[in-house]
Amino acid sequence: MNGPVPVEVLKQHLIDPEICIRCNTCEETCPVDAITHDENNYVVRADTCNGCMACISPCPTGAIDSWREVIKAEAYSLEDQFGWDELPSQNDSLAGLAGAVAGIGEAGKSGTESVSDAPALGGSDMVRGSVVPPWSAAKPYVNLYNHKAPIQATVVGNYRLTDTSAESDIHHIVLDFGKLPFPVLEGQSIGILPPGTTQDGRAHHARQYSIASPRDGERPGYNNLALTVKRVTHDHQGREAGGVCSNYLCDLQKGDVVNVMGPFGGTFLMPNHPDSHLLMICTGTGAAPMRAMTEYRRRRRLKGATGKLMLFFGARTQGELPYFGPLLNLPKDFIDTNLAFSRTPGQAKRYVQDAMRERAADVAALLRHDDTFVYVCGLKGMEDGVLQSLQVIAADAGLDWSALWQRLKTEGRLHLETY
Ligand code: NAP
């Protein structure tokens, strides 16, 4: 006689729509295309997700690390997930059952084990950068405020950074948190909740911006931070389109109050040991975290930090390079700055990776050093080019790049943040 047919219970991977800031990192990271999105939500295909966990650590907010145990035949569909404003609650009668019945455990995790306790290690082949912070990084606070309970910050400064003749309108915006706690570290980001609603009446999602100032404040000893924001006037296809949040931010006046979420990010952090070297490569507004780290080291240098700083910074023209003046004022023995301009009239296009190759011997010397930490931030397209340059530079210097790359990842020494 046949026994009862076991009910298959699935630990279904979901994304928390309340925390998700729709930054697309998970969709780009997923090696099996299990993640997709619509206007409303980022969602996971239950029949495609293989639980590889590649998406977990890169997510800046932790929204990706959401799981519900469901009867497999009743797994939440994409349509269900697109319609959510919040995650459904866990059916208590199923909790802990995934994996307890043969043939289940789709997420590649055994039964009742908490999947969030098992992050992918820095050495995963599917992840190109570190998913662990430097060993000496300070411990970050994350997700102190969400979209239901944001913190209010007051605008205390809003300055245009780029020439008025430049096409890019990039702003340096300073937000002050008064007496409310908002502890941050260089390399972390925050979410800004723009006011108003989308065409279908939903509140706008938060947009993520890197913090451009050091942990002890844009002004040392003050509870404030800076952002570097480029006014978006065109979409990726070049059609006119005003960015909701960037225009809101760039138009803010002193005294305006802004709703903020975060802080986010627990890996793109700087080492705290004073003899560590920073190799920083960025384009455009991707300079924000590099400014934060550089300024922190500049302040700390006065207290004895000795590590080297090398910066490769790309922009269309000199006039479009945020922080151009202050950058050039930094002492040469403090930071080795290399600029690459791609659209200077009468000159050949030059990208950061070209500048890196020109300085190959010095980059290689840094790569040889066990205390060098590499940071890449800016346009998505630069990531391949920069990694290829590092590979060529390492190979020409007789270094085994694939072994070094693996080690950099595992040791929290290669951090990529590109959009
Ligand atoms: P941008 O002005 O469009 O470009 C900056 C420079 O990068 C230009 O010289 C550009 O050259 C060059 N570039 C284009 N493709 C490249 C490639 N494949 N390799 C190397 N260089 C390349 O930059 P942006 O508009 O400021 O964008 C910066 C990016 O940083 C955005 O994607 C933004 O989301 C991201 N980001 C911003 C923040 C923030 O807090 N605001 C933080 C992290 C990251 P061309 O002349 O060819 O265009």
UniProtKB/TrEMBL annotation:
Q: What is its EC number?
A: 1.14.13.208
Q: Which residues form the 4Fe-4S ferredoxin-type domain?
A: 11-40, 42-69
Is the Protein transport keyword given for this protein?
no
- Organism superkingdom: Bacteria
Keyword Iron-sulfur recorded: yes
Q: What are the names of the required cofactors?
A: FAD
Q: Where does NADP(+) bind?
A: S210, K230, T285, S342, R343, K349, G378, L379, E417
What is the catalytic activity of this protein?
Answer: benzoyl-CoA + NADPH + O2 + H(+) = 2,3-epoxy-2,3-dihydrobenzoyl-CoA + NADP(+) + H2O
Q: What class of enzyme is it?
A: oxidoreductase
Check the record and name the InterPro entries matching this protein: 4Fe4S_Fe-S-bd, 4Fe4S_Fe_S_CS, Benzoyl_CoA_Oase_BoxA, FAD-bd_FR_type, Flavoprot_Pyr_Nucl_cyt_Rdtase, FNR, FNR_nucleotide-bd, OxRdtase_FAD/NAD-bd
User: What name appears for this protein in its UniProt entry?
Assistant: Benzoyl-CoA oxygenase component A
Organism expressing this protein natively: Pandoraea terrae
